[in-house]
Specification:
Blueprint: H1 10-27, H2 53-61, H3 72-75, H4 85-98, H5 128-131
C-alpha cells in the first residue's frame, strides 16, 4: 500500500520494499532450517530503545489516535502483530486507556444455548472451565 503512495521518494519506496520483502521471507520460513525454527537478525534501525516499548509502538502505529476515535478509515490499515496473547492484552489496555470515552462492560455467558437442531450433550464439548479461558 505505502509503496504506491505518490508522496514517497525513490529511496523511501526502496526501503519500504526491502522491509516488506524481509517480512514476507520470515512469513514464508525462508530463514528457517528443516526444524521450522530460526534466529532472525533484526536490523538495528528497526529497534527503538525506549523505556516503554508498548507506548512507543502504539504512538508510532496509531499517531494521533485520540483525534481519530471511531474512524474506521484510520484504524483499518493499521495493525500491531505480536506472538502472545499477554502482549496483545498489554497493547489493548494501553490503547483503551488513551481513548477518551466512557468504559462499557459487556457481560458474557458460561453456557451454550441448546437449540432444537443440536444434539443433547453439546455442552460436554465446551465445558465452562474451557469457555472461561477464551479471550476475545
Amino acid at each position: 500500500m505505502r509503496l504506491k503512495a505518490d508522496n514517497l521518494d525513490s529511496t523511501s519506496k526502496e526501503q519500504i520494499k526491502h522491509f516488506a520483502d524481509w517480512i514476507l521471507d520470515i512469513g514464508n520460513a525462508k530463514h528457517c532450517r528443516d526444524s521450522g525454527e530460526a534466529r532472525v537478525t533484526i536490523d538495528p534501525d528497526l529497534i527503538k530503545n525506549t523505556d516503554s516499548g508498548v507506548c512507543s509502538i502504539v504512538d508510532n502505529i496509531y499517531q494521533d489516535l485520540e483525534g481519530h476515535v471511531g474512524e474506521s478509515d484510520f484504524l483499518v490499515p493499521r495493525a500491531i502483530l505480536t506472538p502472545t496473547n499477554e502482549t496483545v492484552d498489554l497493547i489493548n489496555d494501553h490503547i483503551l486507556e488513551r481513548i477518551p470515552a466512557e468504559e462499557s462492560i459487556y457481560f458474557s455467558s458460561d453456557s451454550i444455548c441448546k437449540a432444537d437442531f443440536h444434539f443433547e450433550d453439546q455442552d460436554l464439548f465446551y465445558p465452562t472451565k474451557f469457555l472461561n479461558t477464551l479471550k476475545f
